[in-house]
Amino acid sequence: MVNAHDKELSQLSLAELWQLFPIILEEYNPEYPRWYEDESRALTAGLDQAGLGKALARMNHVGSTAIPGLVSKPTVDILLEVHQNPGRISEETHFQGNGHQQPGCIGLDRFRPALESLGWTLMSEQRDNPVQPGDEKNRGEGTEESGGNAPGEGEAPGDARGNPSGSDTGPRMVFNKGYTPQGYAPRVFHLHLRYLGDWNELYFRDYLRVHPDIARRYGDLKRSLLAEFRHNRDGYTEAKTEFIQTHTRRALEEYSGRYSSPGLYLNK
After folding, report:
1. Pick from 12, 9, 3, 60: which is nearest to 37 by CA?
2. Residue 94 CB contacts under 8 Å (≥ 6 apart), including other chains
3. For position 102, what pLDDT does the model report?
4. Which helix (DSSP H) or strand (DSSP E) does residue 56 occupy?
5. Is residue 105 situated within a structural domain?
6. Which of 18, 153, 262, 264 could covalently link to 149 via disulfide, CB atoms 3.0 to 4.6 Å apart?
7. Which CATH number covers residue 124?
8. Within-domain flag for 100
9. pLDDT of 268 over the 60 cut
10. Is 267 part of any domain?
């Protein structure tokens, strides 16, 4: 009988993937910011070396590991936003924030070879599905807050499933690092590559950072779900959706427009 550990991840069934990569919750690790800083520096240097440095617009540590004191899966989520037209960056100082590709702009797939050379694995790719500017659905929510599925699934780790505003629009690519045939590596990362936009993850993160009571409730919810959904990432995701939607809406009201300029809250 072939052991799951002897197979490539792409050869594993969904059941095998969920067994190999169960939901694991750990107390906050004060080393998470350093994990993010190390990886963000490597990303910046690697993309610059590949001639893509001018396209980088904003990079942020998002997800539960970006919230001090919050229990989480030990996975650092990075939101990397890029300019659609690096030659006209000055014109993006004030933008619509809808994250959709405009005609004649560079495609996100231009970044794939450079990211793969840095050890990242592409897990999912979503093409553009335009919406009208100003439509709330232009925002997406992903990262650990949306459950983060294991490699090989239709939705990859950190992809936009169960997002608060119901958004599944706008092109995006999701990469990961740290998933091996033997299980999790010591450091695990999800990279969310998108065009510059006014993304919900940033608001949800900021809201929980300044509302520790809400963060504690979120942590309690996660713990309560662990026994039932340890090997069911879809169920874990679905069970958190209402909480995330509620508090993301409040965050969007409290911090309206905070991320509508690319220079704000850079590399946090």
Report:
1. 60
2. 260, 261
3. 56
4. strand 56-62
5. yes
6. 153
7. 3.30.460.10
8. yes
9. no
10. no
CB 199 within 8 A of CB 99: yes
pLDDT tens, residue by residue, 79-109: 999 998 876 544 444 344 444 555 557 889 9
d(Cα 209, Cα 18) in Å, to the nearest integer?
30
Residue 266 lies in a domain: no
Nearest to 146 by CA among 166, 161, 165, 134: 161
- Contact assessment for residue 201 and residue 143, using Cβ atoms and an 8 Å cutoff: yes
- Residue by residue, DSSP assigns 140-191 as ---GGGG--PPTTSSS-TT-SSS-TT----S-EEEEEEEEETTEEEEEEEEE
How many other C-beta atoms lie within 10 A of the C-beta of residue 258? Answer: 15
User: For the residues 3-28, what does the mean pLDDT come to?
Assistant: 85
Q: What b/e string do you get for 107-126 counting C-beta neighbours within 10 Å, with b at 16 or more?
A: ebeebbebbeebebbbbbbb
pTM above 0.90, yes or no: no
How many domains, in total, are found in the chain? 1
Q: What is the mean pLDDT of residues 230-249?
A: 95
Look over the chain and give the mean of its residue pLDDT values, rounded to a whole number. 81
DSSP β-ladder status, 56-62 and 183-195: unpaired
Cα torsion 51, 52, 53, 55: sign: positive
